[in-house]
Write a structure and sequence with these properties.
This is N-acetyltransferase domain-containing protein. By secondary structure, the protein is of the alpha+beta class. The protein has helices at about 5-20, 55-65, 80-90, 180-190, 205-215, 230-235; strands spanning about 25-30, 35-40, 45-50, 70-75, 90-105, 120-125, 140-145, 150-160, 160-170, 200-205, 215-225. The chain has an 11-stranded mixed sheet, sandwiched between helices.
């Protein structure tokens, strides 16, 4: 991803590398973009670009519209411009609510949280074996459990000096009870076993308030675009 400010483009690329590694997605790159083959989500390629020029956007739109299951995620602040270009090139907007967020890891706690309930168990597992091929030095999954029930879970990947957080979620019946905060602190403590300086995450609207409480800040909006045929199909659901 080469567009936008150098800092934003660099951090967007760092996030993508960690995110795609955590999900074991096949990835590729080209002029102004990176892409991941998300077989477990859309079953096709998801493209990412950072504040693209008109020519880069046009080329990507042409590639994305060859399959209704593809998507284009634009990281950058000029949402109105991206949506205008999308409408001109056969794409429609799904969302502008997600944010790429960042934090200084030195401000975070390096201790596992106290669960405060003897019936709860914290399970942390390393993803991948000793010889697994991944750009990340280490990847971890974690879950807070009561018996066999997963109350909250998430993942973190270590890529150089960056910790990339992903898929933080709390079971619907257990939301607003602090489990998301406990899970985030668990993953952060694991990341701080490594010499990381920066944390990155793409946060949904629901998750953003949690990250703000933990000292994270908004780096950029993420505009999600799909072919208009798929947008029409989604509207019928």
């Amino acid at each position: 991803m080469t567009g936008g400010s150098k800092e934003l483009a660099h951090q967007a690329t760092e996030w993508f590398t960690g995110w795609s590694a955590l999900r074991s997605y096949q990835s590729r790159s080209g002029p102004g973009f990176v892409a991941a083959l998300s077989l477990d989500r859309s079953g096709d390629w998801e493209y990412f670009t950072c504040d693209p020029t008109a020519s880069v956007f046009s080329a990507l739109a042409e590639e994305v519209t060859t399959s209704t299951q593809r998507s284009l995620c634009v990281i950058g602040s000029d949402v109105h411009r991206y949506v205008k270009w999308a409408h001109q090139r056969g794409l429609g907007m799904v969302s502008t609510s997600e944010k790429l967020m960042v934090c200084a890891m030195e401000t975070q706690d390096n201790q596992d949280p106290f669960l405060g309930d003897p019936d709860l168990t914290l399970v942390v597992k390393k993803i991948g074996g000793k010889h697994s091929q991944s750009p990340c030095q280490a990847r971890f999954s974690a879950a807070i459990m009561r018996g066999q029930s997963i109350l909250a879970s998430g993942r973190v990947g270590i890529y150089g000096e960056t910790a990339v957080f992903d898929d933080l979620k709390t079971a619907a019946a257990h939301r607003r009870r602090g489990f998301g905060m406990l899970m985030m602190k668990t993953l952060t403590a694991r990341a701080l076993d490594y010499p990381v300086t920066t944390g990155l995450v793409v946060a949904t609207t629901a998750g953003q308030s949690l990250y703000y409480k933990l000292g994270w800040r908004n780096l950029s909006s993420v505009t999600v675009l799909v072919p208009k045929e798929r947008l029409a199909a989604l509207a019928r659901l």
